[in-house]
Amino acid sequence: MGGKEDPTANGSPKSESMAGKKASPPDLLSSISLKSLKLKTKQQELLLRVSILGLVYVLAFIARLFSVLRYESMIHEFDPYFNYRTTLFLTEKGFYEFWNWFDSESWYPLGRIIGGTLYPGLMVTAALIYWTLRFLRFFVHIREVCVLTAPFFASNTTLVAYFFGKEIWDTGAGLVAAALIAICPGYISRSVAGSYDNEAVAIFALLLTFYLFVKAVKTGSLSWALASAFGYFYMVSAWGGYVFIINLIPLYVLVLLITARYSLRLYVAYNCMYILGMLLAMQIRFVGFQHVQSGEHMGAMGVFLLMQVFYFLDWVKHQLNDTKLFQTFLRITVTSAILVGGIALGVGTASGYISPWTGRFYSLLDPTYAKDHIPIIASVSEHQPTAWSSFMFDYHILLFLFPAGLYFCFKRLSDATIFIVMYGLTSLYFAGVMVRLILVATPAVCLISAIAVSATVKNLTSLLRTKQKVPQTGSTKGAGSSKSSSKVTLDQSQPFQKNGAIALLVGVFYLLSRYAIHCTWVTSEAYSSPSIVLAARGAHGNRIIFDDYREAYYWLRQNTPTDAKVMSWWDYGYQITAMGNRTVIVDNNTWNNTHIATVGRAMSSYEDEAYDIMRSLDVNYVLVVFGGVTGYSSDDINKFLWMVRIGGGVYPVIKEPDYLVNGEFRVDKGASPKMLNCLMYKLCYYRFGELVTEYGKPTGYDRARGVEIGNKDIKLEHLEEAYTTSNWIVRIYRVKPPTNRL
Amino acid sequence: MVKSTSKDAQDLFRSLHSAYSATPTNLKVIDLYVVFAVFTAVIQVAYMALVGSFPFNSFLSGVLSCIGTAVLAVCLRIQVNKENKEFKDLAPERAFADFVLCNLVLHLVIINFLG
């Protein structure tokens, strides 16, 4: 696999080819070998590099295709369904309709301004690819394009990683970085085929922006800075994580200013990128004026103004050539600048014009904030702090190669290495705070580890090569003999150096091959599940597929009136609108906490109160997910406490202790009476009391919780069962109209 | 104390003036352009303070186009200035072409943003 091939590309092709030309006798075997193609060394190296990059490109694509081969080409999870629906809309109705779209099918009765509240980068990219393929007369369905967008952009990311590695260190590091990032599980987890989410395109845009910016700082050219502004624009259009870029780059500039590594190239690069990038970013409606009004973006503006003052002072100093006068000038300017800046910032923050950091990003700086104040953010499983096992699972050997790479970076500090060190350290901090952000840290970790691998292997192979050169330089007795003679003396003092080098090289190859095996195993086992189709092993080892979700959504699509409104927990909203094509009350966008709290209150109240709430929202159908028959543990009963917390956050009538017994969440006979009679319990366990789920257990045995349920005789007054899927995973109920008053 | 600071200020001003008059004409032209752009931006901000910032995108696009072109002109000056050793192998024509390209992109975005 890729892991084994790359380290040899570093420096050995040169020595191998030269030794081969002199040593191998001309026979049939060597005449068909590479060397007899009469290519010069540089061309051989180019050929090797291009072929390695080509293989890595293909590898990155095919490593992500497990779920397409095992199941079918479908969209995974929850958020991608929304993206798919919007892309479908874009390709059918055109860009103008898409940009101005008001959707009345979600968040009934409020509706959602989709055109102004999404990041259009992903959809526009997929639509462009689709239109290009159609232009070339490949009439593919838009779903195929959506499914394969993520692997395609992952392959492009490997190319950008190669160029970035080349900027920071050398071509060898670039090749290793490309190979590492092609199969790194931290990246694969969010870019597998079918995972049609913003991150698929955003990581490519992130790395591209950083690469172009580092290139601009290195060359000081306005055109590279313009390119990085466009890269930033693409990133802003793709993902909300662009805030990381607009804070990391000013931080980097600040570090360079403080450590006196600044130069005029830095001025050109940052200013052009900031102004043009900010203007381009404000064209996205969802971002709007945040670059001048939000607290998260003030760092960039502050550094921009600081730079103007700093470089102006530098220019005046250069003009004056007289330190005493300059000191007075310096004093006046600096005090006035700080005063003006401080007053402006203070007035802006105090008057509320500059909005403070939003909850999502504030919880990164203060991890305990979300748990106390914003339960919706705290409830998402991806937002939990990261455990060490997650780090090991997602990075494997890169975890200890990262500090080694940091050591090499500090040995050879330059503008580019300072940048990658800062990127690595800040992103690793954030990855430790939130599991989802391991993805953002992955390119930095891969690049820095690649530096470690490349530098180590280069040193080891150069040790090996000096041994080979000893007999040859002995014969030539020419230039460089002094160098080789010193190396000869070195050899004689450490006779086992060659063996040590070979042993270490074998160790490096072993580590990299284990990494490749681990990555493939992780991709195959953990990250290729579509989440909407579940699989399990039967009693005889055969695979059983549970396709209940799609069964339920298609039942909704075909058996309910077109204007029916469906109430469910917000997790399933996107899927219901995309596949069931019905209006939902709340969905995954979670922009309106009160609306979600209303649904949560309905789910946790007694049936009568819940019926009033449902009538007020015009609900026709209720959908719940239940895992008691199959042992599926991500069902609504396990999520129930979050419904209570979110509902209770807005409606104090819902109190969490009412549903717990001694602080414990139970559904068996010992559960609290409010729990046994609330709407969610009734809907999930209706008719379940008569079912035998496991041999040897009583009826009504809940396999997900492992207990026999407490309330087996459930009667529903205002709802009736409409549909239950074949494995009881999704249950749909119809809300009955009010009885006629006599 | 006051007399010494005013004398310092006068000395400062005089030495700055004499140092500046030694700069070549092409750089002085660029400097004049920068001052003009910043002055236009200041006028726009003053107008906004009087009238209010209702179409905020128009105000932002006006101010940012002035600041943007000023900043790009400063970058051009840096790249064209013969005293800067870092840029000595950059042809001034290339610097000017970059400047024109960036200004073109800037103004196209401004036209879209003006509303």
UniProtKB/TrEMBL annotation, chain A:
One of its GO terms (cellular component) is endoplasmic reticulum membrane. Pathway: Protein modification; protein glycosylation. Residues 1-26 are annotated as: Disordered. Its EC number is 2.4.99.18. Residues 565-623 form the STT3/PglB/AglB core domain. Its main location: endoplasmic reticulum. The chain crosses the membrane at residues 46-66, 113-133, 145-165, 171-188, 200-217, 229-255, 267-286, 298-316, 328-354, 391-409, 416-432. It catalyses: a di-trans,poly-cis-dolichyl diphosphooligosaccharide + L-asparaginyl-[protein] = N(4)-(oligosaccharide-(1->4)-N-acetyl-beta-D-glucosaminyl-(1->4)-N-acetyl-beta-D-glucosaminyl)-L-asparaginyl-[protein] + a di-trans,poly-cis-dolichyl diphosphate + H(+). Residues 52-448 form the Oligosaccharyl transferase STT3 N-terminal domain. Keywords: Endoplasmic reticulum, Glycoprotein, Glycosyltransferase, Magnesium, Manganese, Membrane, Metal-binding, Transferase, Transmembrane, Transmembrane helix. Pfam families: STT3, STT3-PglB_core. InterPro entries: Oligo_trans_STT3, STT3-PglB_core, STT3_N. Its cofactor is Mg(2+); Mn(2+). It is a multi-pass membrane protein. GO terms for molecular function: dolichyl-diphosphooligosaccharide-protein glycotransferase activity; metal ion binding. It is found in: Endoplasmic reticulum membrane. Component of the oligosaccharyltransferase (OST) complex. Belongs to the STT3 family. This is dolichyl-diphosphooligosaccharide--protein glycotransferase.
From TrEMBL, chain B:
Keywords: Apoptosis, Endoplasmic reticulum, Membrane, Transmembrane, Transmembrane helix. The chain crosses the membrane at residues 30-50, 56-76, 96-114. It is a multi-pass membrane protein. The keyword Transmembrane helix applies. It holds the Pfam family DAD. One of its GO terms (cellular component) is endoplasmic reticulum membrane. This is Dolichyl-diphosphooligosaccharide--protein glycosyltransferase subunit DAD1.
